[in-house]
Amino acid sequence: MCSLISKSHCHLPHLPLPPTRTSNGITMVRMSGRMEVVCRGMLKPRKFMQRRRKLEVFKDPADEAHQKNWRRIMTEIDESGSAVSVLSSEKINNQGVPKALIVGTLIRFKQLKKWNLVVEILEWLRTQNWWDFGKMDYFMLITAYGKLGDFNGAEKILALMNNNGYAPNVVSQTALMEAYGRGGRYNNAEAIFRRMQKWGPEPSALTYQIILKTFVHGDKFKEAEEVFDNLLNDENSPLKPDQKMFNMMIYMFKKAGSYEKARKTFALMAERGIEQSTVTYNSLMSFETNYKEVSNIYDQMQRADLRPDVVSYALLVSAYGKARREEEALAVFEEMLDAGVRPTRKAYNILLDAFSISGMVEQARTVFKSMRRDRFFPDLCSYTTMLSAYVNASDMEGAEKFFKRLIQDGFEPNVVTYGTLMKGYAKINDLEMLMKKYEEMLERGIKANQTILTTIMDAYGKSGDFDNAVHWFKEMESNGISPDKKAKNVLLSLAKTDHEREEVNELIVHFSENKSLPNGSGVVRFVEEDDEEDNYEYFDDQLTKAYDEHTAEVS
């Protein structure tokens, strides 16, 4: 049993309104103008999450022997990390490995996207006299190099294909283009694509999907938009943009900050009769910062008879959490479990963050324990987020105990972990402990980032020590960091006299003129009460993964 009512409400003898119960056992109660939650059986175990022994059915004894042998081989490959050493031991009379075993293994690793093992097996087969290495083998090998971003390997195989009389075709050229793209050589990838457009072979839909993705990852937004618009508007174009291309463009506009273009592209899909997918809606949801907008898009997706996936639910949980609407965040997570959608560790971390932001320690602990129960073992991010729950509750004694547990459990604290603790001591104006943690962090070989230096600067300034605040502002330069807008604004807010304001303005001008310092972008931030920006790294990773999974495989 646990309660989602904050401690300050626990003693109330009467409730203004009778509670209402939802289908998942969450009781909604009106208190002080907002909905609070009393949860009985919060995150209770679901049957589909429990590990059950699968009943195996075999056709006959021969099939049983074959299946068990297959699993043994896969297990040995997984444990050893090498496919060739295991497959070599399967040779029959030193003649060769059964073809069915080789083909089955390759297909399986292709499905699992374990392209390094695909390359290992095919490179080995290329040297074996008993294997007739043919055209399809070359195609799969160059495709694997492309997926790995190994353009040197792809170039080597393309040369071998030419030497063996296999003329360049759309499969090999697309694979080489992808290899350069994934390898970060965006200009080389573009050159291959332009050459295909001009001289052939004619780019396929997959070619266009990959070049759009390459442009987006290389921040070549103008080139991506140009290619997409040409496909969209050129009457002579051999093909038109498909769902995957539209999805990538919505994602690109989001990444570029062109939200209105993203919405127009979404609307254009319906106009052109292009079916929208869960990935499409997830892309739209990912750049909305208002929980109402995210919720509206989520509702739209359901009205379109599309089933939300774990990314959809995580986006909605995140939006509610950032808006400090923990009860809705929990209800969405419970709905996800009721729908039989398996969460990920990241999804659990997002729910954990929803409670941590508001310093709801008991609820955050319940989420943390549920992760372990469901075998989504907490990572450093989970531990740091749980730590922030104590910090945001101003329970620094609890924070210190949990910090010790983090280390005892085998985790090495990083700059974000220490920054979270230091933020807590700054919040209660304990400068002695704040600096103690700073020194401890440096002793561990962890370099301070802009967020930590801003926290120290702000703490000294608020304690009335303006000179020390200026010192820590200057420390950013010593650490090779150019102060960002937030750091400058904090220092300006600490200046109380005309002389102090003049000193701050001179410092800001000095840093603005110092072009040798990198800017503060890319530094890990902590979410502050007035910070409305979201960290989309998780969703970017998940959306990119979804595009990969929705992209047609080369046969």
Automatic annotation (TrEMBL):
It holds the Pfam family PPR_3. Coiled coil: none annotated. Keywords: Repeat. PPR repeats lie at residues 134-168, 169-203, 242-276, 309-343, 344-378, 379-413, 414-448, 449-483. It comes from the Eukaryota. InterPro entries: PPR-containing_protein (IPR050667), PPR_rpt (IPR002885), TPR-like_helical_dom_sf (IPR011990). PANTHER family: MEMBRANE-ASSOCIATED SALT-INDUCIBLE PROTEIN-LIKE, OS04G0684500 PROTEIN. Belongs to the PPR family. P subfamily. This is Nucleobase:cation symporter-1. It comes from Vigna unguiculata (Cowpea).
